[in-house]
Specification:
The complex is a heterodimer of chains A (200) and B (777).
Chain A: H1 2-16, E1 28-35, E2 38-45, E3 52-62, E4 73-80, E5 88-92, E6 103-109, E7 113-123, E8 126-136, H2 142-145, H3 147-171, H4 187-199
Antiparallel strand pairs in A: 1-2, 2-3, 3-6, 4-5, 4-7, 7-8
Chain B: H1 3-10, H2 16-39, H3 46-64, H4 67-71, H5 75-95, H6 99-105, H7 108-119, H8 122-131, H9 134-148, H10 151-159, H11 161-183, H12 197-217, H13 224-228, H14 237-269, H15 272-283, H16 317-322, H17 326-347, H18 356-375, H19 379-382, H20 388-392, H21 411-426, H22 433-453, H23 458-463, H24 465-473, E1 479-483, H25 486-490, H26 496-499, H27 527-531, E2 537-541, H28 564-582, H29 586-598, H30 604-634, H31 641-649, H32 653-670, H33 675-685, H34 706-734, H35 738-764
Antiparallel strand pairs in B: 1-2
Helix pairs in contact in B: 2-3, 2-6, 3-5, 5-11, 5-14, 9-11, 9-12, 10-11, 12-14, 17-18, 17-22, 18-22, 18-32, 18-33, 21-24, 21-28, 21-30, 28-30, 28-31, 28-32, 28-35, 29-30, 30-31, 30-35, 32-34, 32-35, 34-35
The chains are: A alpha+beta (200), B mainly alpha (777).
Chain lengths: 200, 777
């Protein structure tokens, strides 16, 4: 039991430390373009896009051979379209991506609306610039992003209810719920019942 | 190595939930397999272990290896993922015969209380039997394969993570059902002829071949996603699709045909299975798995008693704690910290993030106390510095009088605790090093004066608010000072644990070990441990909060149901947890400001006092008494509602503890390094420059990580569940019928859920980062 409890605690801490952040492992293909001998493919996630952390992943390939270009230097600039606001810059790196073929940048988009995205890739002495626009929806309320964390106890309660029902049915295979009745609701016997329950 | 291959081998996604689930399954299986292997090495051979672990490894490879990130770029990799989930992992899992090892590997309380009743349920067994019948399992497997390979659903799974999860779950579930009749893992008994497996597997192979051929020979790309993504290694989308089809065709067919050969050989040349089948047919077994007959499912069988974990038997730590001077050493260390806090609070800068009195008590000490209660027990009282002066001066002090009989209750303590909680907010103690220092100093003086005038640790038992906090919350702690062998105490005549021995006092708080239950009023001084000549008292592991379920007569306390003063203390602590945490969130601060304006701008302390009076006075009374009255009425209990309120109040302790834990650990984890610059400044002020210049950036306010809010919610979750369980068990103990117990419990469940909802709401609100400097920029 001790080892089991220890494992549970360790597992719990591991899970708590896990934040399902946007990761650079692809997503929706936004654009595939060939420029200056390079093929640039840009993916975005999550799908659908919402204000908040947005992952922009870029795959840089040699346009002729299709081989990925690992030494590519990729930067991403995101600018709000038709409204005031600062441009958001980010370097897309392989470290930030799960799929190491890609370069990923996780940018924090402050509000919903259209955003112009510019991806600049420098590799093999060439410079490729890809532009596209994307629309972000309103961010989900905070509670909607963490709802599993506080709703799982409802599942545990349901499971417990099911368990008690099964145990009760097993001990009372034929009797209806009202059949087993005793005079134990009186204060005098309530305590002895509690003691019995405790000892059992 | 090509760059693509190199990237492939470096692309390992990390899925904590999956990894934890697989590791837990492997651990439980391994634990059970070791037990079974010792009993019957021939049946529980290493092959079973290897197969089960191989099955889990298959799932891991499919979902948490480079296959997962590359599956969205190449259809053939995606196909490999599906093959692992449908054709490799499930049969391997069944070859491990997981039922017995998993059951044996579970801790006995979980196995007996949770797993066994479920496994013995007739309708669940019937459901499992029907789902794994070849005539059901085959269509399910085939339907899942075909449906998820239709372009519409395939595209959906590729574009939405939730659908992808559903797809994988569907594949694993139907594949487990499909492979069950083929593998027939022990202790399953044969229900159908082995010859039936020939058409079963051959037809499965045929449908697999048809689907694979469709993919292989199709003249256009079936899944538009793969036409959109950039191509890797010069593989066109159509070639990729054909490769995926071949992968499904050839290895897929092998997986279907291999068991066919194996079963055919067995049928032709005889095997143990055949003998089993004949024997089973003769015995006319109605059920494939005869759960009720399995000895492991017999919860009435006595199991070997394993000694509980005992902190005193842990190497080094146990020896230190048992040492006669251990408490004194711990008290001296904390007294040094207290002296530093008092000195800095009185003479240092009056800006709390810069002062030891501003950060050490309100961020670190509180967090350490609550985490100590969670992990060990009442460790702060064990090392309490406030009682050190009277301990050192004991030989010169008079023995003192007994504490007045009329004050032998927790009413005074509950009132002082409420006063302390209110004062904390009213006087912004967290923001005043000077007041903090005076409180610490006052604590030393009060403990010394009270214990000089009265005997038997009267200050700890009847006055100290910190002590009451620790006493009540330690009822949820995992360790308890407890008798190791009750039989030894039964024969003990001298009772040193309470009377004391020659050089060691007995329990000053009047707790007689054999009749002690729970940690209430126990300061963990361990005098009883040292006094017991039989070495029969230990610091043993207990199930957290289990002591709340029953109401036995407890030494030094009596019965919970007859202690309204204790219940009042509990209520102040529980509702104080929520009031205290809510006092630092923006909406509550705004409401207080609005109330102040509405009342014509009275002093702020008046509004805060009103808030606290309502939060830990009026509201608890209304909620608790309403729940008690409704519960008694609905449950048709003859017990009066005041007694019910007293008894059920103890069920609120876990949710209150969860809130304290969430609140204090938030401050500790979010501002742990504020101690660094304050200590550097303090040391520099004393002329010690070895710690360097103060790093004030450590004291700056910064956002708390997402993991902290997850942790806070998790703490509230466990508090909620434990409170609900405790309340239900209390109600159950007082009612002979489940329906009445439920009706009695329902209003209390509402109160508990309400508190939980308030706690979650608090966690979601922007919080004041007290004890930190404002962020710059």
């Amino acid at each position: 039991m001790r080892g089991f409890a220890g494992s549970l605690i360790a597992g719990g801490l591991l899970l708590v430390s896990y934040g399902p952040a946007a990761r650079g492992d692809g997503g929706v293909v936004r654009v595939v373009e060939q420029q200056a001998g390079l093929q640039i493919s840009v993916f975005t996630s999550p799908n659908p896009l919402r204000a908040g952390p947005v992952d922009i992943s870029v795959l840089v390939q040699d346009a002729e051979t299709g081989q990925p270009v690992p030494e590519a230097d990729v930067s991403v600039v995101v600018t709000p379209r038709g409204r005031s606001g600062h441009a958001i810059h980010g370097a897309a790196t392989a470290d930030a991506a799960t799929n190491k073929l890609l370069r990923a940048a996780v940018l924090e988009l402050p509000d919903a609306g259209w955003w112009d995205v510019e991806v600049v890739s420098i590799a093999q002495r060439s410079r490729a610039r890809v532009r596209f626009a994307m629309e972000c929806g309103q961010p989900l309320p905070h509670w909607l992003t963490v709802w599993p964390w506080f709703t799982w106890p409802a599942g545990a309660v349901l499971l417990f209810g099911l368990h008690r029902l099964l145990v009760w049915r097993r001990h009372n295979p034929k009797a209806p719920p009202t059949a087993r009745r005793s005079a134990s609701e009186s204060p005098a016997t309530a305590l002895s019942l509690e003691h019995r329950a405790q000892h059992s | 190595m090509s760059p693509t291959l190199d990237a492939f081998f470096r692309s390992w996604p990390f899925d904590a939930w999956l990894t934890a689930a697989l590791a837990l399954s492997a651990g439980v299986y391994l634990r059970g397999w070791r037990v079974l292997h010792r009993r019957d090495a021939r049946r529980w051979h290493a092959g079973r272990l290897a197969a089960f672990l191989g099955g889990l490894a298959g799932i891991f490879l499919a979902l948490a290896s480079p296959i997962e990130p590359f599956a969205s770029l190449l259809l053939q990799v995606h196909m490999l993922q599906h093959l692992l989930l449908m054709m490799v992992a499930p049969p391997l899992v069944w070859l491990g015969a997981p039922l017995f090892p998993l059951l044996s590997g579970l801790p006995k309380p979980i196995r007996d209380y949770w797993a066994v009743p479920l496994l013995r349920t007739r309708w669940l067994r019937t459901l499992f039997t029907r789902l794994t019948h070849p005539l059901v399992a085959w269509p399910l497997f085939v339907a899942a394969t075909w449906l998820w390979h239709t372009p519409l659903l395939y595209e959906l799974a590729l574009s939405r993570g939730a659908w992808h999860l559903a797809e994988h779950g569907c594949f694993i579930a139907t594949a487990l059902a499909f492979w069950y009749p083929v593998v027939r893992p022990y202790p399953a008994r044969p229900r159908w002829s082995q010859w039936l497996l020939f058409p079963y597997l051959i037809l499965a192979d045929v449908q697999n071949t048809v689907l694979a051929a469709w993919l292989t020979f199709s003249g256009h790309v079936l899944y538009p996603h793969y036409a959109r993504v950039p191509r890797l290694a010069g593989i066109s989308a159509l070639d990729d699709q054909a490769a995926a089809g071949v992968l499904m065709w050839v290895p897929g067919s092998i997986v279907f045909l291999l068991p066919l050969v194996w079963i055919g050989m067995g049928l032709l040349f005889g095997s143990d299975r055949q003998t089993d089948r004949k024997k089973a047919a003769g015995e006319r077994q109605p059920s494939p798995v005869t759960f009720p007959q399995l000895p492991i499912l017999d919860t009435t069988r006595p199991s070997p008693v394993r000694p509980s974990f005992d902190l005193l038997r842990v190497p080094v730590v146990g020896a230190f704690v048992r040492w006669r001077r251990a408490r004194l050493v711990m008290q001296l260390v904390l007294a040094l910290f207290a002296a530093a806090v008092i000195f800095d609070g009185l003479f240092g800068p009056q800006l709390s993030p810069m002062n030891l009195a501003g950060v050490l008590p309100w961020i670190h000490w509180r967090g350490a106390v609550i985490l100590g209660l969670l992990v060990v027990g009442n460790v702060f009282c064990m090392a309490c510095p406030f009682t050190l002066p009277r301990t050192l001066a004991r030989r010169w002090l008079p023995r003192g009088r007994p504490w007045p009989r009329r004050w032998r209750s927790k009413w005074l303590a509950a009132g002082l605790l409420a006063l302390f909680l209110g004062s904390y907010e009213v006087f912004s103690l967290w923001d005043s090093p000077w007041l903090t220092a005076w409180i610490a100093l006052g604590y030393f003086v009060a403990a010394f004066v009270v214990d000089s005038c009265f005997r038997d640790a009267a200050f700890c038992k009847y006055i100290c608010p910190i002590g009451q906090f620790n006493f009540v919350n330690s009822l949820v702690s995992p360790l308890e000072v407890k008798v190791r062998e009750p039989a030894v105490c039964a024969s003990c005549q001298t009772k040193e644990c309470i009377r004391g021995a020659a050089a060691v006092p007995g329990c000053e708080l009047g707790l007689y070990q054999p009749r002690k239950s729970g940690n209430l009023d126990c300061t963990f001084c361990l005098d009883c441990v040292r006094a017991c000549p039989h070495e029969n008292v230990g610091v043993l592991a207990v199930v957290p909060a289990q002591t709340l379920l029953g109401d036995p007569f407890r030494s030094g306390i009596g019965r919970f149901s007859r202690r309204p003063d204790l219940a009042a203390l509990v209520i102040v602590l529980v509702f104080g947890a929520f009031a205290n945490a809510a006092g630092m969130v923006a909406p509550v601060v705004e409401w207080q400001d609005q109330l102040r304006q509405w009342l014509g701008n009275p002093p702020r302390w008046l509004v805060t006092s009103v808030y606290y009076t309502v939060a830990i006075g009026v509201m608890p009374l209304v909620l608790v008494f309403s729940a008690a009255a409704l519960g008694c009425s609905w449950g048709k209990r003859r017990q009066d509602w005041f007694a019910a309120a007293t008894r059920f109040s103890f069920a609120l302790i876990p949710i209150g503890f969860g809130m304290w834990l969430a609140h204090y650990s938030f401050h500790l984890f979010a501002s742990y390094d504020t101690i660094v610059p304050a200590t550097q400044r303090f040391a520099a002020g004393l002329g010690w420059s070895g710690l360097g210049e103060p790093q004030w950036q450590c004291a700056c306010c910064r956002g708390a990580g997402a993991w902290i809010s997850h942790l806070e919610i998790l703490m509230l979750d466990f508090g909620l569940l434990l409170s609900l369980y405790t309340g239900f068990r209390i109600a159950e103990a007082h009612a002979s019928r489940v329906s009445r117990a439920l009706r009695t419990f329902l209003p209390w469940a509402v109160v508990i859920v309400l508190l939980f909802a308030v706690g979650v709401w608090i966690v979601f609100q922007p919080m004041q980062m007290r004890g930190t400097l404002p962020a710059v920029g």
